[in-house]
Amino acid sequence: MARNPVIATVAAVVLAAAAPALATVLVPADFNELAREALTIVHGRVVDVRSQWTDGRRRIETVVTLQVHAALKGQPGDTVSVLVPGGEMGRYRSVMIGAPRFRAGEEVVLFLGGRAPALPHLLGMGQGVYRVVREPGTGRAVVTPPALVAAAPGRVVRGDAGRRAIGIEEFGEQVKQALGTGRDRQLNRSPRAGRGR
Q: Is 3 contained in some domain?
């Protein structure tokens, strides 16, 4: 055995390659399903991002706090805090595939699940996060879809209308249609809606 270390090395490599590989697979979520399954859908601005240890310092999670501009579903109050897997604590960093990252000041629409007393969590990980940007010049809020969304059956077409950015009001109408609430119902506005934008 000691006289042929090359054969031992090759055998070890072959055995390691034969071991089953583990992978994370993210299945695209359907917008209508996300809207129906969400307990709360909020549009707001990130005001705090704070990482913390959990499970006896074995994992890191991040608490993201939003100042609510409008509730598209549910009654979240003036602020809502959301638990997101992964984060940074000093020189340690934890990464979860599919978990989005946030920064203070950015504007988002979040699709949230979970029940009290636990903090809400994102539905579909990053698929439950729609980034809101302001158009240069007009300041109009437009919503950009997440990178991974369920595609309609058939071919993927360049310039698909489902991938374009749309105004926040139109996005709210899409949420209402997905929930079957009709066009005549107004969004539930937070008392602080419109402040600090």
A: no
| Residue 48, CB-side half-sphere exposure with 13 Å CA sphere | 11
- String of DSSP letters for 116-156: TTSPPEETTGGGGEEEEEEPTTT--EEEE--S--PPPSS--
Please say if the pLDDT value at position 163 is more than 50: yes
SS3 63: strand
Q: How far is CA 156 from CA 62, 150, 161, 164, in A?
A: 35, 11, 11, 14
Does the residue 52 lie in any domain? Answer: yes
For the cut 70, the answer to whether the pLDDT of residue 186 exceeds it is: no
Residue 194 lies in a domain: no
The number of distinct structural domains making up the chain is 1
Q: Is a pLDDT exceeding 50 seen at residue 119?
A: yes
Q: Are 196 and 69 in contact (CB under 8 A)?
A: no
- Residue 42 domain boundaries: 23-189
Rounded Cα distance between 91 and 81, Å, is 25
- Lookup: tokens for 7: 């054969």
Among 163, 178, 181, 187, residue whose Cα is nearest residue 31: 178
Residue 36 lies in a domain: yes
Strand, coil or helix: what is 15?
Answer: helix
Strand partners of residue 16: none
